[in-house]
Amino acid sequence: MAEVILKNIHKVYEGGVTAVKDLSFTVRDKEFLVLVGPSGCGKSTLLRMIAGLEEISSGELRIDGRLCNDMAPKDRDIAMVFQNYALYPHMTVEENLAFGLKLRKLPKEEIRRRVGEAAEMLAITPYLSRKPKALSGGQRQRVALGRAIVRKPKVFLFDVPLSNLDAKMRVQMRVEISRLSGQLQTTMIYVTHDQTEAMTMGHRIVCMKDGVIQQYGTPMELYKRPANRFVAGFIGMPPMNFLPCEWLGETLMIPGAGSTGLRSGDFQSGQKTLADDGKAPKPMMGVRPEHLRLERASDGTGGTRTGIAAEVEVVEPLGAETLVYCRAGAHRAVARVHPDLAVGRGDQVLLYPEAAHMHFFEGEPS
Ligand code: ADP
């Protein structure tokens, strides 16, 4: 049962920078948890505190039931995989994999067995006699993973491990790590600034900003019910569209770009269209690109139609879908449309947000 419990964890660096503020969450046994957020939000600091590489200023860290605040890293039974691989350049792949086990004086036969198993699992058996410099970035990353796997730790920690790889290799390794996590059935904590990795790999996500948890939940919870505008804009690619809005009587208008055609009765009671005081309408609407229907203004019945009036600026055909970037008055919005929709730069279009998938936020800067 390698559960990791963080309770009111706080970190102030020497010199006074507060990197992590009163943070609490639990990583369940065998869970793949992703810590995600922009650079500087405190993810690595948090991971390093769990690893024992950084002192915890206050709060409690428990791994497998034991209080670990002051426990030496080697006694925590965790393995960490870094971005820069940290392989020993003068050792072969096999020696790199075996090194930690030799230090711990495991029997030779056991070392050989574990190294063989890990190499098979990661498809690096043909490279066992090579030195790291004779490997590609992806192969080195596999060796770094292998070095963690052979130790059979209670918890794996990953610190932005894929950011050095090219785009194609990153996708491959992402799938590979997810597959490994299913196979190994070990608790994993994975730090990244990449929302796609968070969405695709995590059983659950902790989304952070400025050392504070913004939301903690499954990828789809964060995607469908973002707790605030920061999470709404951070999770999802292309990001959610934000457009200032105002109610004209019962109708939702986009100043300078016309009417959405939606009325207050079109929204469900759970969708908070009003500010906390219950009176003022929230001034910012959010809608994801796939929930913004796009029609050419020249189609249909012309002048009588409502919809947000926009002009197409860029069309990005991606094969399975097309992204259409538009300007609506002083604002910009992107719609994800069917690849067969004939639309080009300079076209006048109408955008229709789907009421059931809209979010409303206070007008704070993102
Ligand atoms: P992230 O991993 O999300 O990019 P970090 O955990 O590296 O963020 O950093 C969080 C904050 O702590 C940043 O403001 C960073 O400048 C600061 N910080 C990180 N390491 C140190 C350090 N050793 N001394 C002082 N401040 C640090």
Question: How does this structure look, described?
Answer:
23% of the residues lie in helices and 32% in strands. With 366 residues, it is an alpha+beta fold. The strands form 5 sheets. The protein has a 6-stranded mixed beta sheet, with helices on both faces. Helix 2 packs across helix 3. The protein is elongated. The mean pLDDT is 92. The site of adenosine-5'-diphosphate has 12 residues, from helix 1.
Q: Which molecules are bound besides the chains?
A: adenosine-5'-diphosphate
Low-confidence stretches: none
Please state the oligomeric state of the protein chains shown: single chain
Q: Give the total of beta strands.
A: 21
Output the strand order for the largest sheet: 6-7-8-3-9-10
Output the structural class: alpha+beta
Q: How many strands, what sense, and barrel or not for the largest sheet?
A: 6 strands, mixed
The arrangement of helices and strands along the chain is EEEHEEEHHHEHEHEEHHEEEEEEEEEEE
Percentage of residues in helical conformation: 10-25%
Specify the number of helices.
8
How much strand?
A: 25-35%
Which outline best applies?
Answer: elongated
Report the mean per-residue pLDDT as an integer.
92
Q: Mind telling me the C-alpha Rg?
A: 25 Å
Distance between the termini: 39 Å
